[in-house]
Amino acid sequence: MTIVIYAGLSISFEECKKILNAEYYPPVKRGDIYNLLSNRNDIEIIGIIDGVFHQSPAVAHKEILKALKKGISVVGGSSMGALRACELYPYGMIGIGHIFNDYKNGVIESDDDVAVALNPETYEPLSDSWINLKYNFEQAEKNGIISDDEKKVLLDTAKEIYYPKRTFEYVIKKSNLSNETLTMLSTYIKKNKFDIKHEDAKEVIEYIKKLSSNE
Q1: pLDDT over 70 at 215, yes or no
Q2: Is 135 in contact with 116 (CB distance < 8 Å)?
Q3: d(CA 183, CA 175)
Q4: 50-69 in b/e burial notation, b at 16+ Cβ within 10 A?
Q5: For residue 122, what pLDDT band results from cuts at 50, 70 and 90?
Q6: Quick count: other Cβ atoms within 10 Å of Cβ 181?
Q7: Residue 1: Cβ within 10 Å count
Q8: What is the pTM of this model?
Q9: Helices 61-69 and 32-39 meet at what angle, rounded to 10?
Q10: Are strands 23-25 and 43-48 parallel, antiparallel or unpaired?
Q11: What is residue 122's three-state secondary structure?
Q12: Tens digits of residue pLDDT in 68-87
């Protein structure tokens, strides 16, 4: 079975390959799936995790719909994959993970919520996504580090910052919370920070692994 997965940002190619033997490509952009379908007839599953948002035009809905019409299973989650899956699940695209469900349920709506700046050579993220900030600040609230009002201030502050500049450190610094809260939150994040996009990316690949074994 031939499987193509677009990743590299939310999860490294090295980690992907430890989970599933597939063909891995950099974050998908406009035209990539058209080109893939034009040159290949052996693709059975396409996974979309990462995609380009602003550096180049994003992958078009029509490209994914064309793959679906060819009988190819298209699975998405984590980042661009979650966004496109939310828009196209009524047409057969499969959405996986927390972020997909957040888009589907209207918890988040903008592509800016999952966007990050990246190193174009290594695909290393250079900023933190708003959705990752949200999940971490929610956990900090549950653990009594910040109040609900302070969480809202932090998330509103993050929204006002252009996505390539969003980092935990910068958002916390700009939030104008008390020095005591800033210190407690900074210490908490350093010890407990987790990456929801990475967790969803792993779930996408695990799902494709199961899907491929059942087909």
Answers
A1: no
A2: no
A3: 12
A4: bbbbeeeebbbeebbbebbe
A5: confident
A6: 17
A7: 13
A8: 0.94
A9: 30
A10: unpaired
A11: coil
A12: 999 999 999 999 999 999 99
Handedness of CA 20, 21, 22, 27 (dihedral sign): positive
| Backbone phi, psi, residue 28, to 5° | -70, 145
Place of tokens 């900023």: 127
- Tell me the two tokens of residue 90: 């009524």
CA 25 to CA 168: how far, in whole Å? 28
pLDDT at 120: 81
Contacts of 163 (CB under 8 A, 6+ apart): 112, 115, 116, 117, 127, 129, 130
Query: Considering only CA atoms, which of 197, 162, 208, 209 is closest in space to residue 50?
Result: 197
By CB atoms closer than 10 A (0-12, 13-18, 19+), residue 210 is exposed
Helix, strand and coil content of the chain, in percent to the nearest 5, comes to: 55, 10, 35
The 10s digit of each residue's pLDDT in 5-59 is: 999 999 999 999 999 999 999 999 999 999 999 999 999 999 999 998 777 889 9
| Cα–Cα distance, 97 to 83 (Å, whole number) | 11
- Residue 141, pLDDT score: 97
Phi-psi label, residue 131: left if phi above 0, alpha if psi -120 to 50, beta otherwise: alpha
